[in-house]
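Colleagues,

For the teaching module next term, I've prepared a clean inverse folding example: a structure given as tokens, and then the sequence designed for it. I'd like students to try predicting residues themselves before seeing the answer, so please don't circulate the second half yet.
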């Protein structure tokens, strides 16, 4: 493939310089390239993608859901797609209970792919809502102290504000002269 690419670049350069006609260059490239694509197409016909089957049943149709890979990582999906379009995120948990309420602690990621830890009971509409959320992984037997992670969050925001302030351009001001 590398030889084909190098050859293609050389021929394009020649056609740009006017030494060769561009139609001849395209024809010279496309003929062997079309054969390679056709060959690969025939070889891939017998390849079938097999997904990893999970132990979670689909709520809509009852089939066992499979693990698929998407733009944002792994997720559970029903193998009966397109008839059944059920899909769920894979929730990563840790073995340490929530220091505040004893619930299961989930590991989630921010948009910048940084892990944070949150209690499974931390959602709107829950009567026994737990407000545990932390950048630090909870330790076994640890009790949550309100405001524990505040200093770390303040450090993060200070770093971000410093980066933003250094990237901003300094505005120039013109001095007005008073006319007499």
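(Answer key — instructors only)
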């Amino acid at each position: 493939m590398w030889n084909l690419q190098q050859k293609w670049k050389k021929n394009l350069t020649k056609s740009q310089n006017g030494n060769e006609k561009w139609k001849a260059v395209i024809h010279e490239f496309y003929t062997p390239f079309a054969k390679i694509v056709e060959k690969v197409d025939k070889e891939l016909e017998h390849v079938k993608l097999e997904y990893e089957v999970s132990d979670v049943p689909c709520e809509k149709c009852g089939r066992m859901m499979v693990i698929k890979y998407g733009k944002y990582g792994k997720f559970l999906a029903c193998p009966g797609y397109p008839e059944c379009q059920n899909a769920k995120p894979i929730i990563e948990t840790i073995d340490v209970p929530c220091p505040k309420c004893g619930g299961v602690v989930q590991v989630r990621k921010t948009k910048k792919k940084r892990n944070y830890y949150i209690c499974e009971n931390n959602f709107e509409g829950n009567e026994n809502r737990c407000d545990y959320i932390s950048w630090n992984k909870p330790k076994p037997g640890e009790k949550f102290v309100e405001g524990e992670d505040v200093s770390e969050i303040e450090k993060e925001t200070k770093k971000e504000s410093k980066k933003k302030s250094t990237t901003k351009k300094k505005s120039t001001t013109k001095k007005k002269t008073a006319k007499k």
